[in-house]
Amino acid sequence: MLQLAGRVGLGVDVADLTGRVDLDSRKRSTLTIRQASWRLKNDETSYRLELRRSMSATVKGAVAVVRAKRDGSDYLVANNAAAADLIDPVHFADRDRDKTRLSLDWTPPETLSFQAMFEDSDDTYDGRALGPQAGEARFYSPDAAYTLADNWQLNLWASREETGIDQATVSGTNGTVVAAQTRQARLRNIGDGIGGGITGRLNEKLEVGAELQYEKDRNECQLVATVPATAVLPDIDTCHSRLRLFLQYALREQMGVRIDYVDDRFDTNDWTWTGWVYADGSSVLLPSDETGRFIGVSAYFNPR
Questions:
Q1: Using CA atoms, how far apart are residues 237 and 190, in angstroms rounded to an integer?
Q2: How many CB atoms lie within 10 A of CB 287?
Q3: SS3 203
Q4: Which helix (H) or strand (E) holds 30?
Q5: Which of 128, 232, 130, 125 is nearest to 181 (CA)?
Q6: What φ, ψ does residue 99 adopt, rounded to 5°?
Q7: DSSP assignment, residue 110?
């Protein structure tokens, strides 16, 4: 890895400008039997430029841009089938990635702080006709912390993540139901999260806290192909919530006990394991909703 850094002045303010070059090389062993194309080596070079600046006494911001290029050695074709192998596996494929990240840190009074981040990434793939074609990712996240009193702190956060990839493949004929064709799979994942917590001291020895998180995740598979309605894959929605409570009591300055309680709830309509049977006849049972509760008691000791 090669890293270059410098400091430049912008008017009366001061900004930090950092340049960085990362080189990543991965080597693999050869598989005797290969179901799909195989690459013995991938190389990726990333160029990063980041500017950080204090815009006022209470506001700091940063912007970073990254350009990455990945390629590799010649492909070793699949050797267990007579048909020509034209698939470009996603972790082997040549890829160009452009990423931009914006961040903001605002601290108006001493008791309040606010941070926000936005990240945008786009991928393009070159090489074979089948396999990954393009990818994208977006991430948004604000969070804030507030001191209610000398011994109490409150924090809140939210996030949204959007990830997608377009892939091309060839489907074999299935009589008159599905005709042989080259089709596109547009895979999308959208995740939303929100949470908050509060911690504080009731007295010099007793500390308490609570934290609540909620996440919702959706997986979409959009097919660009000529298929009947029964062949369209339904979306998968998953919800996850967690409540955590704790109580910590100091027996001495360096020693104490702690009690934790966690309530974890999970709900999904994931259909991918329905009817699945392994070669030995076993299957997977995935309940649509699950609830777990945990109570723990522990002791701590912090030697000086």
A1: 10
A2: 9
A3: coil
A4: none
A5: 130
A6: -130, 140
A7: T
**Cα 82–84–89 angle (5° rounding)?**
120
- For residues 69 and 24, the answer to whether their CB atoms sit within 8 Å is no
- CA–CA distance from 182 to each of 89, 190, 224, 227 (Å)? 16, 26, 9, 12
What secondary structure does DSSP assign to 257-274, as a single string? Answer: EEEEEEEEEEEE---TTT
Phi/psi of residue 78, each to 5°? -60, 145
Token pair belonging to 5:
């850094």
Number of helices and strands in the chain (H, E):
0, 15
d(CA 192, CA 214): 8
* Structure tokens given for 207: 């500390």
Going from the C-alpha of 142 to that of each of 102, 115, 124, 148, 241, the distances in angstroms are 12, 6, 29, 20, 19
The two tokens of residue 23 are 């080189």
Closest Cα to residue 198, out of 155, 242, 144?
155
Tell me the pLDDT tens digit for each residue of 242-289: 999 999 999 988 899 999 999 999 999 999 888 888 989 898 888 889
Gap between the Cα atoms of 144 and 282, Å rounded:
48
Return d(Cα 113, Cα 154) in angstroms, integer: 11
**DSSP annotation of 229:** G
> Of 136, 96, 132, which Cα lies nearest the Cα of 120?
136
pTM of the full structure: 0.81
Q: Which of 90, 83, 277 is nearest to 172 (CA)?
A: 83
Contact 71, 43 (CB under 8 A): yes
Nearest partner of 265 among 289, 246, 286, judged by Cα: 289
Please, which residues bridge with residue 130 across strands? 87
Is it the case that residue 296 has pLDDT exceeding 80? yes
Residue 192's DSSP bridge partners are 160, 216
Cα 145 to Cα 197: distance, rounded to the nearest angstrom: 10
Q: Could you tell me which residue, 249 or 223, shows the higher pLDDT?
A: 249
